[in-house]
Amino acid sequence: MTIFSYILVAFLIVCAVAVCLNKNLLTSIVIFMSYSVIMCIIWILLESPDLAITEAAVGAGVTSLLFFMTLKKIHALTEVRGEEEPMWDDEEGEDE
């Protein structure tokens, strides 16, 4: 294995541990996407383009999209805002 392969495996292990230990769900999904991209690169280095394409499509694509949709459905994607600053103006387009 080359030095690049060792670095990829190290990043893969770091991503796997970070997904498990992270408290923020959105951050965990982004790290999971990184994990899938690293796995895709490893499959390419192992000369398995079919597995690389599948990992990119299913791991980084479809699964992450389903995770994001689930977070939206359970209302976990909310922004923290102060009392004085509304997130949007309810009277857009109306002149005062």
Furnish the topology, listing elements before pairings.
Blueprint: H1 3-21, H2 25-45, H3 49-73
What does this structure look like?
- This protein is mainly α and 96 residues long.
- The protein has a domain at 8-73.
- The protein is built from three helices and no strands.
- α1 (3-21) packs antiparallel against α2 and α2 packs antiparallel against α3.
- The termini are far apart.
- The model has no long low-confidence stretch (mean pLDDT 84).
Number of helices: 3
Helix/sheet category? mainly alpha
**H and E string:** HHH
Number of β-strand runs: 0
CA-atom Rg in angstroms: 19 Å
Q: Overall mean pLDDT score? A: 84
Poorly predicted sequence stretches spanning 5 or more consecutive residues: none
Overall form: flat
Q: How would a crystallographer describe the biggest sheet?
A: none
Strand coverage percent: under 5%
How much helicity do the residues have?
A: 55-70%
What separation lies between the terminal Cα atoms?
68 Å
Summary tags:
about 100 residues, mainly alpha
Please give a quick description of this structure.
This protein has 96 residues and is mostly helical. The protein is 68% helix and 0% strand. α2 packs antiparallel against α3.
